[in-house]
Specification:
Its EC number is 1.2.1.-. It is an enzyme of class 1 (oxidoreductase). InterPro entries: Ald_DH/histidinol_DH, Ald_DH_C, Ald_DH_CS_CYS, Ald_DH_CS_GLU, Ald_DH_N, Aldehyde_DH_dom, Aldehyde_DH_Superfamily, Succ_semiAld_DH. The protein contains 14 helices and 18 strands. By secondary structure, the chain is an alpha/beta fold. The protein is globular, with a radius of gyration of 23 Å. The strands form four sheets. It has a seven-stranded mixed β-sheet, sandwiched between helices. Strands 7-6-5-8-9-17 form a six-stranded mixed β-sheet, with helices on both faces. A three-stranded antiparallel β-sheet has the order 3-4-18, with no helix packed on it. The structure holds adenosine-5'-diphosphate. Adenosine-5'-diphosphate binds next to helix 7 and helix 8.
Length: 464
């Protein structure tokens, strides 16, 4: 129990269910103190040149890269993903620090003529101010650096609240930030129960921006709370990614792409393939190839050699996957790979392929967030585009075809922020990541990512 705090909470290893750490649940007063520290740190940090901030971020990048193996193991222990994927997440997470270290040097304003000859328009870019990041458990490192990188580059300060399932990665990143020379108060991590400390983060008037990655349901709530003090908000919310496999696609490429888009992170990804529409002529061939590959995936604890599918985050996640499969099979779908809790028990679930899935089933309407691929048969392009868009979500979609005209037409018609074309891998630091509809607001990464942390100030300069 920390002084003045509200007790403690435990973190467990999803592979075993064993408790691996006990951390303080901070009180709202303690969280307020970290917001106030971020506010006090703001003038000095934002007054540094972009080049000076860049050097600090670059040192943070170097330290994360140097300690990649330790960080990856921490991720496996608290989150469960296979070690090879945890290593890849650290490379991905570090890439945002490197990228935004560079972008810090490129913040620039504008000067141009006003309609009056004696007057100039001068536009400055200024940091938004104190920011809050609220992050999920599925990518415990990357979801933090993707926010803290651009925030610190822009001259903002930030308080991070990591998911309570995965706070250890966040604390390790903060330790490395401190060693890199990030001044006290510029980046803080607060741990605790969202219901207790959330209102302080979303309600404190000193906080000027909330950047959230998580479910649409929680995102809506945070937006409502942030509205009371008119905070700036960036939201990366849920998805229900459709995959469209046309009969002119290269089948092996499509199988590979779908495996990547689904089974990365054991299916626990907001851009994960949630429903796969396959054109009639290649449906059976595609389903057979996919079932064979899926059945061969190695399931086990993330630290074990060769493991490709880890445990799910908690037992509620296992129940949701089982419920989606049960609803589908009760309504006529068939299991052609996996289908049940894995023999290892606990939170391990067999990678699964379902065929004869129909559009109205629960599994195509809700985000499953687990290792299940439901295959729906389709005939016509118009029909499949309508099905793909029949959702409140609009994060990612994937399409497989060799026809260039169809590629442009379908990519334009899909109501999502991102479209993978003949690939299941779309995330990287140079591309703008984000959704439309109820999948979110704003973009992370790319040359646009820093804009989320900058405000424009316009000076009408008479006589300039
Ligand atoms: P997931 O479904 O990935 O667990 P959530 O949307 O439930 O995603 O949670 C994402 C993050 O939002 C976590 O850090 C969680 O603790 C936090 N969170 C959940 N509810 C609230 C809330 N009411 N206020 C502030 N943060 C919250």
């Amino acid at each position: 129990m920390t002084e003045g705090g509200s007790g403690s909470f435990t973190v467990d290893d999803p592979a075993t269910g064993h408790v691996i750490a006990k951390l303080p649940s901070l009180s709202p007063e303690q969280v307020r103190a970290s917001v106030e520290a971020a506010h006090r740190a703001l003038p000095e940090w934002s007054a540094r040149s972009g080049n000076e901030r860049s050097q600090v971020l670059r040192r943070w990048f170097d330290l994360v890269s140097e300690h990649a193996e330790d960080l990856a193991r921490i991720i496996v222990l608290e989150q469960g993903k296979p070690l090879t994927e945890a290593r890849a997440e650290i490379v991905y997470a570090a890439s945002f620090l490197e990228w935004f270290a560079e972008e810090a040097k490129r913040i620039r304003g504008e000067i141009f003529d006003s309609p009056r000859a004696s007057n100039r328009v001068v536009v400055l870019q200024e940091p938004v101010g104190v920011c809050v990041a609220i992050t999920p458990w599925n990518f415990p490192a990357a979801m933090i650096t993707r926010k803290a990188g651009p925030a610190l580059a822009a001259g903002c300060t930030m308080v991070v609240k990591p998911a309570s399932q995965t706070p250890l990665t966040a604390l390790a990143l903060a330790e490395l930030a401190e060693r890199a020379g990030v001044p006290a108060g510029v980046l803080s991590v607060v741990t605790g129960r969202a219901s207790e400390i959330g209102p302080e983060l979303t309600g404190n008037p000193l906080v000027r921006k909330i950047s959230f990655t998580g479910s649409t349901e929680v995102g809506r709530r945070l937006l409502q709370e942030a509205a009371l003090t008119v905070k700036n908000a960036s939201m990366e919310l849920g998805g229900n990614a459709p995959v469209l496999v046309f009969d002119d696609a290269d089948v092996p490429t499509a199988v590979e792409g779908v495996l990547t888009a689904k089974f990365r992170n054991t299916g626990e990804s907001c851009i994960g393939a949630n429903r796969v529409y396959v054109q009639d002529r290649i449906y059976d061939e595609f389903a057979a190839a996919l079932a064979e590959r899926t059945g061969a995936l190695k399931v086990g604890p993330g630290l074990q050699d060769g493991v490709q599918i880890g445990p799910l985050i908690d037992s509620a996640a296992v129940e949701k996957v089982a419920e989606h499969i049960a609803d589908a099979t009760e309504n006529g779908a068939r299991v052609v790979a996996g289908g049940s809790v894995h023999g290892l028990g606990g939170r391990f679930f067999e990678p699964t392929v379902l065929v004869d899935v129909a559009p109205g089933m629960l599994i195509t309407r809700e985000e499953t967030f687990g290792p299940v691929l439901p295959l729906v048969r389709f005939d016509h392009e118009d029909q499949v585009v309508a099905w793909a868009n029949d959702t409140e979500f609009g994060l990612a979609a994937y399409l497989f075809t060799k026809d260039a005209e169809r590629t442009w037409r379908v990519a334009a018609a899909l109501e999502t922020g991102m479209v993978g074309i003949n690939t299941g891998l779309i995330s990287n630091e140079v591309a703008p990541f984000g959704g439309i509809k109820q999948s979110g607001l704003g973009r992370e990464g790319s040359v646009h990512g820093i804009d989320e942390y900058l405000e424009l100030k316009y000076l009408a300069w008479e006589g300039a």
